[in-house]
Structure formats: structure tokens, C-alpha cells
Write a structure and sequence with these properties.
alpha+beta
Length: 94
């Protein structure tokens, strides 16, 4: 089953619940307020509770990549010792 990709600002407490997690086998948060969910009615209902923008996987990946590149640049410009110790690494969304 394909996933859905969203840009939704995390509003903090109760942004998602344990029940939301149970309702969606896929539920992942990523840099840039990108959320990957299962492609089902429960995911659409969850996203509908917030101002959101549905994205394609390619668009969502671009947002995540941009945020990781920003974090890499910040990390590269830090004095030693660097914190966190590991440089942020790009990855591919599911």
C-alpha cells in the first residue's frame, strides 16, 4: 500500500495519540514537519484535524533533504567538539 505525505506543524501534546498510531501502520515524523502516514481513511481524518498540505513523495523528500542539508551546514560550521557528535545524514523516505 502506498503511503501519504503531509506537511503539518506538530502542535505538541495530543498532536497524535496512541489510537492514531494504532490506526495507521505507518506513522513517521521527519524534518521540515513532514509526516508519512498509511494511505487510509484514518490517516486522512487525522491530517484533516490540522492545516495541512498533501505532498508527493518527491516533494516531501525535497523538504526533508533541504532541512538535513541545513543541519549539515550548521554542524560543519560548529567549533570542536561538535554536538551532536554525528553529522546529520540524508535518508530516503518510505
Amino acid at each position: 500500500m502506498a503511503n501519504k505525505y503531509w506537511v503539518i506543524e506538530n502542535t505538541g501534546k495530543d498532536f497524535f495519540t496512541h489510537q492514531d498510531r494504532d490506526d495507521m501502520p505507518v506513522f513517521q515524523g521527519h524534518p521540515g514537519n513532514v509526516w508519512v502516514t498509511s494511505s487510509n481513511a484514518k490517516a486522512t481524518a487525522w491530517a484533516g484535524k490540522y492545516p495541512n498540505v498533501s505532498k508527493t513523495k518527491t516533494e516531501a523528500q525535497g523538504i526533508v533533504d533541504d532541512k538535513i542539508e541545513e543541519a549539515q551546514e550548521e554542524w560543519d560550521n560548529q567549533d570542536e567538539p561538535k554536538h551532536p557528535q554525528e553529522r546529520p545524514v540524508k535518508y530516503i523516505l518510505d
